[in-house]
Amino acid sequence: MQTSDNLLKEKLFSKASYSIFGQVFYMIGQLAILSSLSHFRGIEAAGVFGLAISIVTPTFVFANMGLRTAQGADQANEINFANFFCFRLFSSSTALLICILASFIFADSQDVALIIILYASAKFAETFSEVSYGAYEKNGRFDFVFQSLLLRSILTLIMFVSILAVGFPLWAAFFAQLFVWTLVAVFYDLPRARSFEPDSNGNLFSPDFRVLKSIFKKAAPMGGTNFLIGSHLSILRIYIESTMGLAALGVFTNISYIFQAGSMVGNSIKHILVPQYSKGIRNGDEAGIQRLYDASRLLILAGSIAGIIFVIFFGELFLKILFGRETGEYVDLLLVICLALSFRTLGAVPQSLVIAKAKTMSQFFREFLYASFTLALSFVFIKSVGLNAAGWILVVVVGLRVLFDSLSVRLNR
User: What is the pTM of this model?
Assistant: First the structure.
């Protein structure tokens, strides 16, 4: 007969499988989009996408304010779905306006500005899938997250690649992505999420403004922290584009998306661990928290080592098949990026415990220093050393984050 501890581990592993594999499929879909851009439209098209990601992603990360994790951790049902939804509607609308303004500042042509706006609009639609995922995770339905991510990935990939293959303009492919993400959010995710809280069905647009204010107070530090975490790649990409051009940015975008995609897996790890840590803290189960902490880091370390070994032996072939000859010449950069990713995913474990213990304000100030450090190193090294310098900057900054988060966990035991 299995012990309750073994049953808990099996249940957590099942949840982890759904959440992480959903992100893996999403990652594969986005990598395939980058691959199709490089093969069908050339490396500069990947650079345009990289510029769009650099502007849009951190802006929406801040707007989302880590609320998916907060929803999952709200096991006492203090805030209903309607309030989370209305908060995200307001914050994401603001983010979309900021991205539209930024597109006219950073884009050097109307076509590039249009692609940035379309990608920002797709991220706006994705917001409502994200708030639904928070409701799924709060109720233990990680399988719904998996199904939604799988559906979005497959439909987006089919439409995006087909449009590029038949020769339609680049903006048409990004419009197709917007169409699919809106369709899935409105007709698939939101109805499911609202079914968990019947009282929200008739009051979705009637929030309690005192609750919204409370959400902002609690979530703003986490939103700022996540924005600063996501800003590192954006700083590097924008600096590369301004000093080395769109082709160089295309190469870096292709390879650095491995890091960005892996970061999504790291976020899935946080979405799983934060509710578990929160329960452990509430129940005073320090021994259970420590077991989960150690086991998670061990599993991530094993996966990271396997990934680095794969890159050493097959990295060049992998890049050439996926992105073409221009990107295939930068296997050394891929190896450095994978090292940075190892630190990033390992860091999700102590960061989850920091979030569960509500230590987000101190983390915000540390992330501000890391982002400033990234900017300073970019200014000093990228132009003179080249693309590999950008990879090593990531390694240094992410490594420092893991070190200080781990020390924070030890000091606060």
Answer: 0.81
